[in-house]
Amino acid sequence: MPADTATRAGSPKATAVVGPIILLGPPGAGKGTQAKAIARRFEIPQISTGDILRENVVRGTELGRKADPVMKAGGLVPDDLMLAMVAARLKQPDAARGFILDGFPRTDGQAQWFDQALESITFGGRRMAPVVINIRVSYNQLLQRLTGRRSCPVDGRIYNVYLQPPQQEGICDSCGAPLVQRKDDKEEVISERLKSYERQTQPLVDYYRRQGRVHELNGDLPVDQVTAETLAIVESSAAAGA
Ligand code: AP5
Question: In this predicted structure, what is the pLDDT of residue 14?
Fold first, then answer.
């Protein structure tokens, strides 16, 4: 996302109860980009399971050691590890007004677990159902987005060498750190990630459609337009009490 997108999209709304937001979509759909925009606007945490796993890999924790080979191969980390990790994160005080799940749930088991977990979580004193945003992107866009993605290891900003380049090649616009490429953004791993998505995660769109919770987004549009639509969905859902 360009450095100033969140600012242009409006000032933060730090007092509103927002509730749980789920971003669905294939690898490269723009979940992380949009999660950051929501997080800035509403000052609720982006809970990116991919980011938490990558941090564990860097720190060499037991979870990181188990997840690393699975991620390198483009598969999904087993549910028991994911559920323990997410359960611990949801208990953090910064999630009290709401949170954005970026990359979770990803399997039927994870979705069912999360439905149950929500029965015992309150936001501003009340239970809230998730707002589910499904970001659809045409297949041929995804490859360019993933192979071109670079990110800042210091502030997490996401760029794309083809679509959203930094002002100076390889350097973060906001903090000047050298940008990095994710290990799983290689073509052979990307195709495995897309297969895992189709097999295990895409069916969740129907799972949430049956609950009447899905908002569809055209993720092929330019980032600023997708962000404006995303924020409008979250705003109206929060106002309606989801
Ligand atoms: P994770 O980190 O979640 O990766 P992913 O789902 O594959 O999604 P990405 O982060 O690749 O893409 P994104 O949709 O966030 O797109 P982004 O905004 O960056 O997971 C990694 C791995 O961890 C998994 O493969 C799995 O092994 C494991 N894992 C994680 N969660 C798990 C779970 N719940 N269960 C089991 N295993 C799990 O954008 C991509 C690029 O496109 C960027 O360059 C961006 O600048 C650009 N872009 C974004 N939007 C636009 C736009 N509108 N127009 C033009 N360019 C755009």
Answer: 61
